[in-house]
Amino acid sequence: MSNPWIIAEQIVWSADSGEIRLYDALEGTFQTLNASGTAIWELVVEGLGTEEIAARLSSLYGEDDEAERKLIAEDVHAFLADLATRGVVSPATAAAP
Questions:
Q1: Residue 78: which of 46, 40, 48 has the closest Cα?
Q2: How many domains does the chain have?
Q3: Which residue range(s) make up the domain with 77?
Q4: What pLDDT, in 10s, does the model give residues 24-63?
Q5: CB neighbours (10 Å) of residue 35?
Q6: Ramachandran region, residue 17 (left: φ > 0; alpha: ψ -120 to 50; beta: rest)
Q7: pTM for this structure?
């Protein structure tokens, strides 16, 4: 199981008409996620990690096609890496024992 993602404190988001809109309060920038980004974001909000998000989306959209499942996993990794690079999300760290 991979660690879930944490949405940065400066990110304000809303769901409207099947889209997710992000506002970075520090940068003053807006972003509207496309359908794929919205699907990933909704699973981030549910507390899923990268691998779980890829698995969930693969089961919905690429169940019978190995190449499609691989592409979905690559896209999920790339999208979350991009959000992390821009400070929108960060990976949660495992709690200390």
A1: 40
A2: 1
A3: 7-87
A4: 999 999 999 999 999 999 999 999 999 999 999 999 887 7
A5: 10
A6: left
A7: 0.89
